[in-house]
Each structure stands twice: as C-alpha cells, then as structure tokens.
Amino acid sequence: MREKFRQQLEEMYHQMVVMGGLCQQAIAVAVKTLEEEEEKAEGLEAQVFALDGEIDDMEREIEALCTKLLLRQQPVAKDLRRITAALKMITDLERIGDQASDIAELARFIRKGSSQHEHLNQMATDVVKMISDSVEAFIHLDIDQARAVIAYDDVVDQWFDKIKAELVSQIANDKEGGEELLDVFMVAKYLERIGDHATNLAEWVEYAVTGTRSKDGRWVEPDGRA
Question: What element of type H or E holds 37?
Fold first, then answer.
C-alpha cells in the first residue's frame, strides 16, 4: 500500500512540473506576441490560448489524483500537507494561465516596438523564474528556495512601479496614445499579479514543510487565521 502511495505521489510531482512548465511557456509566448506583426502575433495568441487549455486540463488531472490519494491512501500528516499544498498550488497555476491569455489578448492593441517592451520582457523573465523555482522548491521541499522566491517578489513589484511611473509621464505628454499606454499598463499589471501567484506557490511550499505559511511577514494557518 505504501509503495503504491509513493508512486502516485511521484506522479503528482511529475504533473506539477509539467503544469508549471506550461505556465512558463504561456507567459513567454504571450510576451513575445507583443513583438510580432499581426499575422504572426495571431498564431502566437492562438498558441497561448491552447496552452491555457492544457493548463486547465492539468489542473483537473492533478486535482483528481490528489483526491484519489486522500480518499484511498489515508496519508499521514506530513504527506497530507503536501497533497493539500498541491491542491492550492494548482489553483494559482491555473490563474497564471488565464493571465497569460489576458496578456496575449491585449497584445493586439499595442504597437510594436513600444519603449516599455524591454521592461515587460524583464518582468516576464523574472516571474517565469519565480514559478520555476517555486515548483522546484515544492518537489524538493526546499524551504530556503521557497523563501527566496517570496523575497524576489519585491523585484517584480519594483519593475511594475517603474513601468507605471514611466507610463504616467508618457500619458501626460501623449494624450492621443493614452489608450494604448493603458493597455501596456494592464500587461504590466497582469505580470505583477503572476508574481503574486508565484509567491503564493512558494508560501504553500512553506506550509508543506512546516504546517504554517507566511503572509506579509506573518505566519498564518492554512485557513488564513493569523
């Protein structure tokens, strides 16, 4: 019985890695859509939507596997925390896929070669790293790596604040381009939210290891009570 449980737990870990990889790919393609001309951008947009569909499918598959583990294997407390954390994490990963799709949709309204693209690309690179590191920390139950991800969210927030400040200045000087610049702002906002979801992933790794998770510097129980 215990060997069967171990095999299913390993399968859960494998699927989490696959789902995380799909999220990273969706973000990278969504941001690339900003750089391409219309015909190629449409193909990339369709690719992001397809990836989002795969992410949704993975959420259902992992949820079903976790439910099977809970009902059939009667996990001990340590394993129960891992499964609970996985169930919470796949919700954040699914939302990351949705926000990658939102970015791809906005890309069609943004001129190519915007001065903000470099910053957006850097934000995207940073949030992709946060997702990758969070999933890796979960697989290895590495609390130090998880806490490094939580701290790194400040870097993503700084990028967002920088882009926001620059856009405010540009809108003041370019009233006609204000609508497009607001779309650029929304792309940055979606990336900032993805960073928040990646932080959530890392906080659930903390819970898997310790039984508690931190939020805004406080330790809280999984039901959110301080």
Answer: none
For 117, half-sphere exposure in the C-beta direction (CA atoms, 13 angstrom radius) is 15
CA neighbor of 114 nearest in space, from 47, 181, 176: 181
Q: Which amino acid does the sequence have at 102? A: D
d(CA 207, CA 195): 19
Distance CA 216, CA 218 (A): 6
Give backbone dihedrals phi and psi of 213, rounded to 5 degrees, phi first: -135, 150
Question: Could you read off the pLDDT of 115-144 as tens digits, one per residue?
Answer: 556 789 999 999 999 999 999 999 999 999
Phi then psi for residue 223, to 5 deg, are -85, 5
Q: What tokens appear for 216 in the block?
A: 């805004």
- As given in the structure block, the two tokens for residue 193 are 């939210």
Residue holding tokens 């130090």? 144
Given a cut of 90, whether residue 8 has pLDDT beyond it is: no
Residues above pLDDT 70, as percent of the chain:
88
At residue 200, the 3 state secondary structure works out as helix
In angstroms and rounded to an integer, the radius of gyration of the C-alpha atoms of the chain is 19
Residue 218: phi and psi, rounded to 5, are -110, 150
